[in-house]
């Protein structure tokens, strides 16, 4: 159970990092345009 919680936490953590990169990419493209 603990391994599953850690795995789901890692997925959520990676998702937040991807979201930050995604929003940063959107901000850069909108600024350049």
What features would you describe in this structure?
With 33 residues, the protein is mainly alpha-helical. Helix content is 94%, strand content 0%. The chain has one helix and no strands. It has one helix spanning 2-32. The radius of gyration is 14 Å and the shape is rod-shaped. The model has no long low-confidence stretch (mean pLDDT 76).
Give a short synopsis of this structure.
This protein has 33 residues and is mostly helical. Helix content is 94%, strand content 0%. The model has no long low-confidence stretch (mean pLDDT 76).
Largest beta sheet, briefly?
none
Shape: rod-shaped
Query: What is the first-to-last residue Cα distance?
Result: 48 Å
Percent of sequence in beta strands: under 5%
Return residue spans where pLDDT drops below 50 for at least 5 consecutive residues. none
Q: Count the beta strands.
A: 0
- CA-atom Rg in angstroms: 14 Å
Helix content: over 70%
What is the overall number of helices?
A: 1
Q: Write down the secondary-structure element order.
A: H
What is the average of the pLDDT values? 76
- Summing up helix and strand content along with how strands pair, one would put the structural category as mainly alpha
